[in-house]
Design brief:
Blueprint lengths: L1 H15 L13 E2 L1 H16 L6 E2 L1 H17 L35 H5 L6 E7 L6 H10 L1 H8 L11 E7 L2 E7 L8 E3 L5 E2 L6 E2 L11 E3 L6 E8 L2 H13 L6 E5 L2 E9 L2 H10 L8 E4 L1
Parallel strand pairs: 1-6, 2-4, 9-11
Antiparallel strand pairs: 3-5, 4-5, 6-7, 7-8, 10-12, 10-13, 11-12
Length: about 300
């Protein structure tokens, strides 16, 4: 009788809190160009300081994406809870950090709760009251001792030997999760592209198609200009479809630029990086994942 009662209590508890450990990552999960850029910047920072590059984790990137969206949409950082906290508005157990943090119950167990990632992971955060871009995020983390120490595995993190990292950027929020366990998940697709980020440190798999550039494709070598890119493709037809959508929005200077077998849709181009950054900020609402490329 007691066993039946306990089972009933657990069942009711499960209905109230639908969180299931080891959830599947949605098939349409992808990484934005800015997030892929931030991944590279983190590895560049580590290598420059004598640390080994990290493998990109699909599981930790998914956890990061859930968290930045929860922070922006639900603001769990209230009533003594900081930004490492999670609200009660999602398919996860709510957590107020540091109030709820104990030896047996930790916010760093979120990856095990939300994915099939087998270990704990630790988070570094960024926030500003505007759209967040990779160059601003990494400079903030590099210049903040607490963040830099976690990323590099220095100070109190010296005993932690990071192997993988996952990240997300949403609106003014960004976060990166660092773990010591290998991720059972594999490659991550780049959003709006047929490219993937492999389950290897700082690697992008490319499979160029044998297609001839059309009249709307500009082949570039070295121009010294800075291009605002809305998408990068191995497939010319995909790039042409994206270009058509961009031009419908009124961006007449948009074009496809081809280099090294990649077809990139440029919304506009500028003579300096400062002008390009200003141009990207103006279109951030329409092209959240746009990034700057120099040739």
């Amino acid at each position: 009788m007691k066993k039946i009662l306990i089972a009933a209590i657990l069942l009711i508890s499960g209905l109230i809190n639908p969180t299931v450990r080891g959830q599947e990552i949605p098939a349409n999960f992808c990484l934005s160009d800015d997030e892929a850029t931030l991944f590279r910047m983190i590895n560049e920072f580590r290598v420059a300081n004598g640390a080994t590059p990290l493998v990109l984790s699909k599981s930790l990137s998914y956890v990061a994406q859930l968290h930045v969206k929860d922070l922006h949409l639900n603001n769990p950082a209230v009533n003594g809870c900081n930004q490492h906290s999670w609200s009660d508005k999602g398919n996860w157990a709510p957590f107020c950090y540091p109030k709820d943090q104990t030896r047996k119950k930790s916010v760093w167990d979120k990856p095990k709760e939300l994915t099939k990632y087998p270990g704990v992971a630790y988070e570094v955060l960024y926030w500003e009251n505007a759209a967040a871009f990779p160059d601003q995020i990494i400079e903030n983390w590099k210049s903040t001792q607490q963040s830099a120490s976690l990323i590099l595995g220095h100070g109190k993190w010296a005993r932690n030997h990071w192997k993988v990292v996952g990240m997300a950027i949403f609106k003014g929020y960004a976060c990166a999760w660092f773990g010591e366990s290998a991720d059972p998940e594999g490659e991550i697709r780049i959003c709006h592209s047929d490219s993937v980020v492999a389950f290897k440190a700082d690697a992008i798999l490319q499979e160029p198609q044998n297609e001839q550039p059309g009249s709307d494709v500009v082949i570039v070598k070295k121009t010294g200009r800075f291009y605002i890119i809305s998408g990068s493709f191995n497939n010319l037809k995909q790039a042409q479809a994206t270009l058509k959508d961009v031009r419908k929005l009124g961006y007449k200077r948009s074009q496809i630029i081809e280099n090294d077998g990649k077809f990139r849709v440029s919304i506009d181009d500028f003579e300096s990086v400062e002008l390009a950054k200003a141009g990207r900020r103006k279109i951030a609402n329409k092209f959240r994942d746009a990034w700057i490329l120099s040739y």
